């Protein structure tokens, strides 16, 4: 027997697709949400936070509360030798010149985990209380028709992922046109300041629009050259050098005027191509 969801949630990344979903619901063009959840890594560009504040006002008028959740500041934690390092997908140049990437755990720790924790809280079953069978929330994800391969089911039974843009058949360009028509044409690309999944185009845009943020990324890039600071302090062997830029060169020295291809797929919490924080499907229920 199919049961109705206890809650209807929106996973709000504050980028193009999730902003479109929120505005469609606010305008009554699609079913509304009980809450929109924004996972704050603490290191988003200023434009994203400004955009989020504007969304909060619009959503409040439509009776959709936006809740910001967090599991800490990803930048500070990455440079804190006392903090367990949640691996970022840094580009690696090995000791023999081999090229690779570090494991990706940051999305799971700083986005998926706090979103799940808040969903359980809103359902009334915070960790470690077990969520009863049949109690769940739907969770709208901003995956558009040109990204259908990124649509995934939730890995816990108390969340059911839905994809309204796929139901509408909308592409990212359709979302862009909708946002422009309704006065939201400046909706920014949502990603951490130091996210390695950037093309030269968005690195250059960050440098032009938020020079202080870009300088911060340059400083961070230099600081993580030899990995997490705790590794060096403990004398752990160096497996290579680490970089934010795909060229595996210091960000400060990269010519961002060179076209290095399209923007890589980013880190939407529920469609990540890397590692995420997993929970047992039927038990355990991690935070």
CATH top level label: Alpha Beta
Strand content: 5-15%
Alpha-beta classification: alpha/beta
Strand-and-helix sequence, N→C? EHEHEHEEHEEHHHHHE
Mean pLDDT: 89
Radius of gyration: 20 Å
What's the β-strand tally? 8
How far apart the termini lie comes to 28 Å
Shape: globular
> What's the CATH topology name?
Rossmann fold
Which regions have little confidence, pLDDT < 50, spanning 5+ residues? 273-287
Helix fraction, binned, reads: 25-40%
Strand order of the largest sheet: 3-2-1-6-7
Question: What's the CATH architecture name?
Answer: 3-Layer(aba) Sandwich
How would you describe this protein?
- The chain is α/β, with parallel strands linked by helices and 287 residues long.
- The chain has a single domain (7-253), classed as Rossmann fold (3-Layer(aba) Sandwich).
- The chain is 32% helix and 11% strand.
- The chain has nine helices and eight strands.
- The radius of gyration is 20 Å and the shape is globular.
- The model is unreliable at 273-287 (pLDDT under 50).
Summary, kept brief:
This protein is α/β, with parallel strands linked by helices and 287 residues long. It contains nine helices and eight strands. The strands form two sheets. It has a five-stranded parallel β-sheet. The protein has a three-stranded antiparallel β-sheet with strand order 5-4-8, with no helix packed on it.
Question: Helices and strands in order, then pairings?
Answer:
Blueprint: E1 7-11, H1 16-26, E2 35-39, H2 46-61, E3 66-69, H3 74-78, E4 91-94, E5 99-101, H4 106-123, E6 137-140, E7 159-162, H5 164-168, H6 172-181, H7 200-209, H8 211-223, H9 229-233, E8 240-243
